[in-house]
Design goal:
alpha+beta; OB fold (Dihydrolipoamide Acetyltransferase, E2P); 3 domains; five-stranded antiparallel β-sheet; five-stranded mixed barrel; 7 helices; 14 strands; elongated; transmembrane helix; membrane
């Protein structure tokens, strides 16, 4: 049928064109047989249309049967979903990873693969909340099981923030329900049925009613071709020192005269804290910056903001490195409008 219909259709199309041409010639020459030829061309056209219609139906039915067969072929005889890391590599230059896993999860299943920040870390990291460590958690990515394999190429969001040497974790999960991986849902049944059958896997309810997620515990991977934590911290400190050395030193009078002229300049000011206000994530400081014989002049004040908190208090002497943002106007407790040069601090020490 697959070969006959296309051949018959092509033959009908060819016959239709030839007969139609002959009929037109006969009409022009006013031959008696022109009507019979024209009728034959119409019959050829009808055969062509029928063949095309049947071929379309066969193609649609074939796809439907193929999909049904694929779903019917899922036959799970094991009691634990699992996977094994076959290949893993880290590209330092691209800040990307390539992972290949083998798994008993059925082909065609949509899965999420996650790559976690370090679980075991080299000596030198004392605080798991270290900003360097916090940047190492990559979001999970979606992919599909093909021929018993899960392959993923994953690019870090920032090529400049390298993954440091150490041990990392990879894990899998996949949702099961009437809208996600429905062929698995037909095999596994409800969440309660899946829990009783796959006791070694973590199974939890999702936000979508009636659907659930099967989580497969993480395995550990080692990165050894990148940079060590100590070396990374050393590079960061060197970069900070270079940035500090580039800071411009201005007199307060220059800045106050025209703060917008100096907007976006990276500057350095040393002074005494007149007032400091903090919340959980940010700090505002009024800093007296002109040194006199008796101390710092409280008339020469710069308004400082900082994205973070510090250990400093009023009357402490500090050095601020940051970017000029023009001026800032606020209302004093007495109801007066006060305008000060404004600096967005990057470093306070």
């Amino acid at each position: 049928m697959d070969m006959v219909l296309p051949l018959l259709g092509v033959g009908s199309a060819f016959a239709f064109v030839i007969l139609l041409i002959i009929a037109i010639i006969g009409w022009m020459l006013k031959k008696k047989w022109k009507k019979r030829i024209f009728l034959a061309s119409i019959i050829s056209l009808a055969v062509l249309l029928v063949c095309l219609g049947i071929d379309k139906i066969v193609e649609t039915n074939s796809k439907s049967v193929s999909k049904e067969e694929s779903q019917e072929n899922i036959d799970i005889t094991f009691d634990k979903f699992s996977y094994k890391v076959e290949k893993f590599s880290y590209n330092k230059d691209e800040n990307s990873i390539d992972i290949e896993l083998s798994t008993n999860i059925p082909n065609g299943t949509e899965v999420n693969i996650g790559f976690n920040k370090m679980m075991v870390i080299e000596e030198g990291i004392k605080d798991i909340d270290d900003p360097v460590v916090k940047q190492l958690a990559w979001e999970k990515a979606a992919t599909e099981v093909k021929e018993g394999k899960i392959k993923l190429h994953y690019d870090g969001s920032d090529k400049e923030t390298k993954l440091i040497n150490g041990q990392y974790g990879v894990w899998l999960d996949f949702e099961v329900g009437s809208l996600k991986n429905e062929q698995l849902f037909a095999e596994l049944g409800s969440m309660e049925e899946a829990k009783s059958r796959f006791k070694e896997n973590t199974i939890s309810e999702t936000a979508d009613k009636g659907e659930y997620s099967i989580i497969i515990g993480q395995q550990f991977l080692n990165i050894t071709n990148s940079i060590s934590y100590k070396e990374l911290k050393k590079q960061e400190q060197e970069a900070i020192e270079q940035k500090k050395a580039s800071a411009k030193e201005l007199r307060f009078a220059e800045l106050e005269k025209n703060p917008n002229k100096h907007a976006e300049e990276y500057v350095k000011f040393k002074g005494e804290i007149l007032q400091i206000m903090e919340d959980s994530t940010s700090t505002v400081i009024r800093l007296a910056v002109t040194k006199e014989s008796y101390g710092y002049d409280i008339s020469d004040v710069v308004y400082i903001t900082y994205a973070g908190t510090t250990e400093f208090v009023e009357e402490d002497i500090i050095t601020v490195y940051g970017t000029v943002k023009g001026s800032h106007t606020y209302e004093s407790q007495a109801g007066h409008q006060i305008t000060l040069p404004y600096i967005e601090a990057e470093i306070i020490e």
